[in-house]
Amino acid sequence: MKIVLLSGSKVGSKTRTAMDYTLNITREKYPDVEVTLLDLAEFEMVFSDGRNYFEYEGDTKYVTETIMAADTIIIGTPTFQASIPATLKNIFDLLPVDAFRDKVVSMLVTAGTAKHYLMVEQQLKPILAYMKAHIVPTYVFIEEQDFHRKEIVNDDVLFRMERLVEDTVLLVDAYEAIRKVKDEEYGF
Fold first, then answer.
1. Distance CA 75, CA 119 (A)
2. Which one of 3, 59, 133, 159 has the fewest beta carbons within 10 angstroms of its own beta carbon?
3. 70 vs 93, 124, 147, CA distance in Å?
4. pTM for this entry
5. Angle, CA of 115, 116 and 122, to the nearest 5°
6. Signal peptide position in this chain (predicted)?
7. Residue among 133, 3, 139 nearest 71 (CA)
8. Domain count, the chain
9. For residue 42, what is the domain's CATH number?
């Protein structure tokens, strides 16, 4: 199984902090899983211009091809102006409309206020559904008060992060079993 952790912003530290915790949880609980962290702050991405993702070069090609090769993606995103960052939206624009078909996608969201949970429900989930993702229904929402000096200090958040990783891996296994049964129905 290939898991990509996508930190969807070029600025700030909270989302990357959350993704680092998620990376450590994933490696600890599932040592046999191939895990890749893509932090968009570390790449020089070009804006989508309508080409197929495999026609781009450099960092853009690497990031999009890594996402397309994954079985599951855990997206980490801050909330900017009650919306997703442009860097994350650009990733969605670079990929084909069915980029997440047969992929499980889960989410961690950082925000300054509890009211920003609506961004996930009204913007991020509809985009992922449109791109054919199997969406993990629950997500981890982390507020400003849950951080102190670039550390997550809320034990409940850490518990929910562990649960999110578990749920993500279990959902991948479940969909894989379903696909196997469906494939066997064809008899070839």
1. 14
2. 159
3. 18, 19, 30
4. 0.94
5. 110
6. none
7. 3
8. 1
9. 3.40.50.360
Q: What is the token pair recorded at 160?
A: 């929910």
What is the C-alpha separation between 45 and 142, in angstroms, rounded?
Answer: 26
Cα-based distances in Å from 38 to 143, 145, 185:
22, 25, 37
Phi, psi of 80 (to 5 degrees): -115, 125
Residue at token pair 């804006």: 47
56-113 pLDDT per residue, tens = 999 999 999 999 999 999 999 999 988 999 999 999 999 999 999 999 999 999 998 8
Structure tokens at 188: 């070839």
Query: What would the pLDDT profile of 130-158 be if each residue is shown by its tens digit?
Result: 999 999 999 999 999 999 999 999 999 99
Q: Can you give the residue range of the structural domain that contains 72?
A: 2-186
Taking each helix axis from N to C end, the angle separating 86-94 and 58-69, rounded to the nearest 10 degrees, works out to 70
Alpha carbon distances (Å) from 52 to 124, 170, 181: 22, 31, 32
| Structure token digits, residue 68 | 């397309």
Cβ atoms 23, 15 nearer than 8 A: no
